[in-house]
Write a structure and sequence with these properties.
about 170 residues; single chain; mainly alpha; 7 helices; 3 strands; elongated
Length: about 170
């Protein structure tokens, strides 16, 4: 490898390497595409440092990513969700927090990053209980809460205090 130069690398060699990854080594298409991305990054860097290699770089950078079918994401059934939620320890503070967190996540479908950003003031438990969520791109949305979720949150809010800026799930 130390004697290797840019002149030794060409698109057919890269294609042969990528093909060997899949057929010879048994790697997946995703692995092949990851290796191609690394090669592209190196070739882009090398061509900027060595302008005479630009035609070679263009041929290598023209190698397309291989397409593949993405598997359908699965989901948990209601009994499975209930088993996860009920696995929390209601005797400990962290168990009660985790229980409230899991119930809110199940009810609203929020991302983890959104859930950890929730504050006490983002929850309204009046006549129509809701939670205000700040999502990606600073988009806000209000999601209604089920009666059971609202009841769990009422108990949880008594534990964490009334300051509106307190994290909902510290």
């Amino acid at each position: 490898p130390t004697a290797l130069t840019l002149d030794d690398i060409d698109a057919p060699i890269i294609l042969a390497f990528l093909d060997d990854l899949e057929t010879g080594r048994g790697n997946s298409v995703r692995t092949r595409n990851a290796r191609l991305a690394a090669i592209r990054a190196f070739i882009s860097y090398a061509s900027a440092r060595e302008p005479t290699s630009l035609p070679l770089a263009q041929r290598i950078l023209a190698i397309p990513q291989k397409r593949f079918n993405r598997p359908l994401l699965g989901y948990l059934t209601r009994p499975e969700i209930e088993a996860v939620v009920n696995a929390t320890d209601s005797a400990s503070w962290s168990g009660r927090r985790d229980h409230a967190l899991l119930v809110v996540m199940y009810n609203t479908g929020i991302r983890v990053s959104e859930a950890i950003g929730l504050r006490r003031g983002d929850v309204g438990l009046e006549s129509a209980p809701y939670v205000r969520i700040r999502g990606k791109g600073r988009k806000e949305r209000s999601v209604p809460l089920w009666k059971t979720t609202a009841a769990i949150l009422r108990k949880w809010l008594m534990e964490i205090g009334s300051d509106a800026q307190t994290p909902l799930f510290p």
